[in-house]
Amino acid sequence: MTPAPSPRRRRDATASRERLLQAATELFTDRGFDQTTARDIGERAGVDAAMIARYFGGKAQLFIEVLHAEEATETLADLLDPDRLAWLLDRTGRRGPGPVLQAGIRPYDDPEAQAAALAELHQRAVAPLRERLAREADPDPALHAEVLAAALIGVILGRHAGTFEHLAAATTPQLLPLLLDLLGRR
């Protein structure tokens, strides 16, 4: 008597894809694009890393998917608004700067990933600032917007990394007036 064939394990492609996306989001945020491998993502998700190619096309395309998924929950527009700035400080204080902000100071080795991250940074932070500054008749809104975004990214990264003791220990209510003053919005 031949043993009955074992039932094939049913795959849930949607659940596997979501687990890969969640794992990639966490790892890209913690380590950055270049320090995260497809194997790391697969292990964290409990899914064969080869499925990254199947569901997303590759690690760079998964990264782009993470950026687009993050966009739905993280719109950085109008960083000069005190409530929006407080939200960003709270969010990055809890989990650190995400892949979009990281791309502003540390280029990724993969040109496709870098281009996608910078496009998101410009769309979410620089362009809204430039538009606001242009409406306010700033003489050079493009340059001013980039300087403001770079200053803010520097503060967020320095705070998260613990590079500056007092900055790392500061609360959002302590930082907000200082940043608004620095950004010329007090």
Structural account:
This protein has about 190 residues and is mainly alpha-helical. It folds into two domains: about 60 residues, Homeodomain-like (Arc Repressor Mutant, subunit A); about 110 residues, no CATH class. Helix content is about 70%, strand content about 0%. It has ten helices and no strands. α1 packs across α2 and α7 crosses α8. The chain is elongated. The model has no long low-confidence stretch (mean pLDDT about 85).
Provide keyphrases for this structure.
Arc Repressor Mutant, subunit A, mainly alpha, about 190 residues, single chain, elongated
How many discrete structural domains?
2
Mean pLDDT over the residues: 85
Question: What Rg do the Cα atoms give?
Answer: 20 Å
- Number of beta strands: 0
Shape: elongated
The helix tally amounts to 10
List SSEs in N-to-C order. HHHHHHHHHH
Tell me about the biggest sheet?
none
Would you identify the regions where 5 or more consecutive residues have pLDDT less than 50?
none
- Name the beta content range: under 5%
How far from one another are the termini?
A: 84 Å
Percent helix: 55-70%
SS content category: mainly alpha
